[in-house]
Amino acid sequence: MTSTNPNSSRDSTIAASEGLASKTSNFFTVFVDKHVYGLDVKEAETIFKVGPITPIPLTHPEVSGFINLRGKIVVAVSLRRRLGIPETDGICEKFAISLEAANEHFALLVDRVGDVLALPASARTEIPPHYTSRQSLFTRDLYLYDSKLTPILDVSRLFDFSI
Fold first, then answer.
1. Domain extent for 88
2. Does a structural domain hold residue 6?
3. Which end of the chain has fewer beta carbons closer than 10 Å to its terminal beta carbon, N or C?
């Protein structure tokens, strides 16, 4: 005869929630104007200062042009324009993050790059209905960090120009 421990279900639930709380994801922050966003560190290949950009005629307005990254030509995409954030006098996109999406390399242009954050899974929250539709379209996850909501960008959607 098998005996059942009435606490085993509760113990496994506690263990599962403790495991969830101990899982962390690493993101680094990028800034556009006063807005902060997160990018998964596993998705970033290189962070670099923006050099000369060669314009590409007849392309999407979010595409700034081509950048030469160590001999490789990559498409530079403005995060500011992609998210519909208005241009600000005196502030320009000085940094780029090299990312890959759909087997193509891109340089995501941002104003500045911040720190790496190790955020616990317990800090993840649902995207609220009041979040702007343009931002939520490119947001993979939303984390509560330092009493603020930090959107984590969805790289595959950022570089899908059919959206």
1. 24-158
2. no
3. N
